[in-house]
Amino acid sequence: MKRSILYSGTAFLIAVFLLPKLMQAARVGDTAPDFTATASDGRTYHLSDYKGKFVVLEWHNNGCPYTRKHYESGNMQRLQKEWTARGVVWFTVISSAPNTQGYVTASEENGYLAKMQAAPTAALLDPSGPLGHLYGAKTTPHMFIINPQGQLIYDGAIDDRATTDLSDVNGATNYVTVALQEAMAGKPVSTPATRPYGCSVKYGN
To answer: Which residues pair with 154 in a beta bridge?
Structure first.
Protein backbone atom coordinates (compact mmCIF):
# COMPACT_ATOMS: atom_id res chain seq x y z
CA MET A 1 0.00 0.00 0.00
CA LYS A 2 2.78 2.43 0.93
CA ARG A 3 4.63 1.53 -2.27
CA SER A 4 1.49 2.25 -4.32
CA ILE A 5 1.08 5.64 -2.63
CA LEU A 6 4.75 6.41 -3.24
CA TYR A 7 4.49 5.56 -6.94
CA SER A 8 1.30 7.63 -7.26
CA GLY A 9 2.97 10.58 -5.59
CA THR A 10 6.01 10.31 -7.84
CA ALA A 11 3.85 10.14 -10.96
CA PHE A 12 1.95 13.21 -9.78
CA LEU A 13 5.15 15.18 -9.27
CA ILE A 14 6.42 14.19 -12.72
CA ALA A 15 3.11 15.22 -14.27
CA VAL A 16 3.15 18.58 -12.47
CA PHE A 17 6.72 19.17 -13.66
CA LEU A 18 5.98 18.31 -17.29
CA LEU A 19 2.49 19.77 -17.62
CA PRO A 20 3.52 23.43 -18.01
CA LYS A 21 5.85 22.52 -20.91
CA LEU A 22 3.14 20.46 -22.58
CA MET A 23 0.57 23.24 -22.15
CA GLN A 24 2.93 25.92 -23.44
CA ALA A 25 3.82 24.28 -26.75
CA ALA A 26 2.49 26.42 -29.59
CA ARG A 27 0.04 25.05 -32.16
CA VAL A 28 -0.79 26.24 -35.66
CA GLY A 29 -3.72 28.64 -35.50
CA ASP A 30 -2.84 29.88 -32.02
CA THR A 31 -1.33 33.21 -31.16
CA ALA A 32 2.42 32.60 -31.19
CA PRO A 33 3.72 32.82 -27.62
CA ASP A 34 5.84 35.88 -26.95
CA PHE A 35 9.47 35.42 -25.96
CA THR A 36 12.56 37.35 -25.01
CA ALA A 37 15.93 35.93 -26.02
CA THR A 38 19.55 37.02 -26.21
CA ALA A 39 21.32 36.63 -29.53
CA SER A 40 24.92 35.97 -30.44
CA ASP A 41 25.24 39.66 -31.36
CA GLY A 42 24.63 40.54 -27.70
CA ARG A 43 21.24 42.11 -28.32
CA THR A 44 17.98 41.10 -26.66
CA TYR A 45 15.08 40.33 -28.99
CA HIS A 46 11.36 40.29 -28.17
CA LEU A 47 8.88 38.65 -30.52
CA SER A 48 6.34 41.34 -29.65
CA ASP A 49 8.59 43.95 -31.27
CA TYR A 50 7.91 42.36 -34.68
CA LYS A 51 4.12 42.51 -34.73
CA GLY A 52 3.16 43.43 -38.27
CA LYS A 53 5.93 41.32 -39.83
CA PHE A 54 6.29 37.71 -40.83
CA VAL A 55 8.70 35.88 -38.50
CA VAL A 56 10.49 32.60 -39.23
CA LEU A 57 12.01 30.51 -36.44
CA GLU A 58 14.65 28.01 -37.56
CA TRP A 59 15.95 25.52 -34.96
CA HIS A 60 19.62 24.87 -35.58
CA ASN A 61 22.45 22.52 -34.59
CA ASN A 62 25.69 22.93 -36.55
CA GLY A 63 26.75 19.36 -35.78
CA CYS A 64 23.59 17.76 -37.13
CA PRO A 65 23.96 16.24 -40.62
CA TYR A 66 20.41 17.30 -41.52
CA THR A 67 21.25 20.88 -40.62
CA ARG A 68 24.58 20.66 -42.47
CA LYS A 69 22.71 19.50 -45.57
CA HIS A 70 20.91 22.82 -45.79
CA TYR A 71 23.94 24.95 -44.91
CA GLU A 72 26.61 23.16 -46.93
CA SER A 73 24.34 23.25 -49.98
CA GLY A 74 23.73 26.96 -49.35
CA ASN A 75 19.98 26.37 -49.19
CA MET A 76 19.37 27.85 -45.75
CA GLN A 77 21.47 30.93 -46.44
CA ARG A 78 19.62 31.46 -49.73
CA LEU A 79 16.29 31.31 -47.92
CA GLN A 80 17.48 33.68 -45.20
CA LYS A 81 18.70 36.24 -47.72
CA GLU A 82 15.66 35.93 -49.98
CA TRP A 83 13.08 36.37 -47.26
CA THR A 84 14.80 38.94 -45.07
CA ALA A 85 15.17 41.05 -48.25
CA ARG A 86 11.38 40.91 -48.45
CA GLY A 87 10.94 42.13 -44.88
CA VAL A 88 10.68 38.78 -43.10
CA VAL A 89 12.34 38.52 -39.69
CA TRP A 90 14.37 35.29 -39.54
CA PHE A 91 15.63 33.96 -36.22
CA THR A 92 17.99 31.00 -36.05
CA VAL A 93 17.45 29.37 -32.64
CA ILE A 94 20.02 27.17 -30.89
CA SER A 95 18.60 25.17 -27.98
CA SER A 96 21.52 22.74 -27.56
CA ALA A 97 22.50 22.55 -23.89
CA PRO A 98 26.13 22.88 -22.77
CA ASN A 99 28.20 19.76 -23.46
CA THR A 100 25.77 18.55 -26.13
CA GLN A 101 26.01 18.50 -29.93
CA GLY A 102 25.48 21.94 -31.41
CA TYR A 103 26.10 24.00 -28.28
CA VAL A 104 28.00 27.19 -29.09
CA THR A 105 29.08 30.33 -27.32
CA ALA A 106 28.15 33.69 -28.80
CA SER A 107 31.58 34.14 -30.35
CA GLU A 108 31.55 30.62 -31.80
CA GLU A 109 28.17 31.23 -33.39
CA ASN A 110 29.27 34.55 -34.82
CA GLY A 111 32.27 32.81 -36.34
CA TYR A 112 30.01 30.13 -37.81
CA LEU A 113 27.63 32.70 -39.31
CA ALA A 114 30.54 34.49 -40.95
CA LYS A 115 32.11 31.27 -42.24
CA MET A 116 28.85 30.01 -43.73
CA GLN A 117 27.80 33.47 -44.96
CA ALA A 118 24.52 32.94 -43.18
CA ALA A 119 22.13 35.87 -42.97
CA PRO A 120 19.45 35.45 -40.31
CA THR A 121 18.14 38.53 -38.57
CA ALA A 122 19.81 37.11 -35.47
CA ALA A 123 20.91 33.81 -33.92
CA LEU A 124 19.09 33.34 -30.62
CA LEU A 125 20.94 31.39 -27.93
CA ASP A 126 18.65 29.14 -25.88
CA PRO A 127 20.99 26.77 -24.00
CA SER A 128 18.57 26.10 -21.13
CA GLY A 129 15.75 25.42 -23.58
CA PRO A 130 12.78 27.62 -22.58
CA LEU A 131 12.24 28.94 -26.11
CA GLY A 132 12.49 25.49 -27.61
CA HIS A 133 9.96 24.08 -25.15
CA LEU A 134 7.66 27.05 -25.65
CA TYR A 135 7.30 26.17 -29.32
CA GLY A 136 7.71 22.41 -28.95
CA ALA A 137 10.77 22.35 -31.20
CA LYS A 138 11.68 18.70 -31.79
CA THR A 139 14.36 18.53 -34.47
CA THR A 140 17.09 20.45 -36.22
CA PRO A 141 15.96 21.88 -38.44
CA HIS A 142 12.40 22.54 -37.22
CA MET A 143 10.68 25.52 -38.82
CA PHE A 144 7.91 27.81 -37.58
CA ILE A 145 6.27 30.79 -39.31
CA ILE A 146 4.34 33.55 -37.55
CA ASN A 147 2.19 35.96 -39.55
CA PRO A 148 1.96 39.74 -39.08
CA GLN A 149 -1.08 39.29 -36.83
CA GLY A 150 1.01 37.18 -34.46
CA GLN A 151 -0.57 33.86 -35.40
CA LEU A 152 1.43 30.68 -35.91
CA ILE A 153 0.72 29.60 -39.49
CA TYR A 154 3.33 26.88 -40.11
CA ASP A 155 5.02 24.24 -37.95
CA GLY A 156 7.18 21.46 -39.33
CA ALA A 157 9.87 20.36 -41.73
CA ILE A 158 11.79 22.65 -44.04
CA ASP A 159 10.94 20.47 -47.05
CA ASP A 160 9.69 17.07 -48.17
CA ARG A 161 13.08 15.36 -48.55
CA ALA A 162 13.91 13.89 -45.14
CA THR A 163 17.49 12.93 -45.98
CA THR A 164 21.04 14.16 -45.37
CA ASP A 165 21.86 14.12 -49.09
CA LEU A 166 22.78 17.60 -50.34
CA SER A 167 21.51 16.78 -53.82
CA ASP A 168 18.01 16.29 -52.44
CA VAL A 169 17.67 20.03 -51.86
CA ASN A 170 17.11 20.49 -55.59
CA GLY A 171 13.63 19.45 -56.58
CA ALA A 172 12.32 19.36 -53.02
CA THR A 173 9.08 21.09 -52.10
CA ASN A 174 10.20 23.75 -49.64
CA TYR A 175 7.34 24.11 -47.18
CA VAL A 176 8.68 27.39 -45.78
CA THR A 177 8.81 29.04 -49.19
CA VAL A 178 5.35 27.79 -50.14
CA ALA A 179 3.83 28.94 -46.84
CA LEU A 180 5.36 32.41 -47.06
CA GLN A 181 4.35 32.83 -50.69
CA GLU A 182 0.77 31.82 -49.98
CA ALA A 183 0.45 33.92 -46.82
CA MET A 184 1.95 37.01 -48.46
CA ALA A 185 -0.56 36.61 -51.30
CA GLY A 186 -3.38 36.62 -48.77
CA LYS A 187 -4.11 32.93 -49.22
CA PRO A 188 -4.45 30.30 -46.49
CA VAL A 189 -1.39 28.11 -46.07
CA SER A 190 -2.15 24.89 -47.92
CA THR A 191 0.16 22.76 -45.77
CA PRO A 192 0.24 24.39 -42.33
CA ALA A 193 1.83 21.48 -40.47
CA THR A 194 4.21 18.69 -41.40
CA ARG A 195 6.32 16.22 -39.49
CA PRO A 196 9.74 17.79 -38.82
CA TYR A 197 12.80 15.72 -39.60
CA GLY A 198 16.40 15.89 -38.43
CA CYS A 199 18.39 15.40 -35.25
CA SER A 200 16.56 15.69 -31.96
CA VAL A 201 16.96 19.05 -30.22
CA LYS A 202 19.66 18.50 -27.59
CA TYR A 203 17.87 19.85 -24.55
CA GLY A 204 19.49 19.59 -21.13
CA ASN A 205 18.12 17.27 -18.47
So the answer is: 145
